[in-house]
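fyi for ur records
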Amino acid sequence: MENKKFTLLSANEGGRRKPAFFALSILPEKLGICHSDREFTVQVVKDLNARSKTLVEVAEAAVFYFQEAVTFDEEAAAKFLHAEAAGHLQALAEGIPAVQDYTKEGIEAFLRSLADARNTKLKVIAQPLRIALTGKTVSPGLDEVMITLGKDKVLKRIKRAVEYIAGKGQVLK
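which gave:
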């Protein structure tokens, strides 16, 4: 019955959910998530709104935003969090504090520039970064996630992923 309620709310609103209403009333009810920063919670819902068919999907996808430390999906970590990725993640951690234009465009330019400087494709950097930030291989756009989380949380999560790789006995580059 409860899941049906959330699905019906989604269907009745024709995909035009009101992020503030959902973030501040339904999300806490569904997952017990109540964040003191209302603007942050609304932004999380905006990040996820277009990618989710139901309110339940939004609620389930929102969890990583509110975790202090994300849990890495085992398959994703095994595939993408390795020694080469640690080098890219370390370079990200060193470069992010200097990013002045912390917007969608600025983050995209920074990531592309880093990939060029490291003579690799953006996807080789992006997938380990996505796992470091969300724990999963699927998420909203990296720029959206990075903006919503903010530099401090992004840096903490990247550093934690590098530590995770080091703990697996991987040699860091």
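The first helix runs from residue 2 to 12. thats all i got for now
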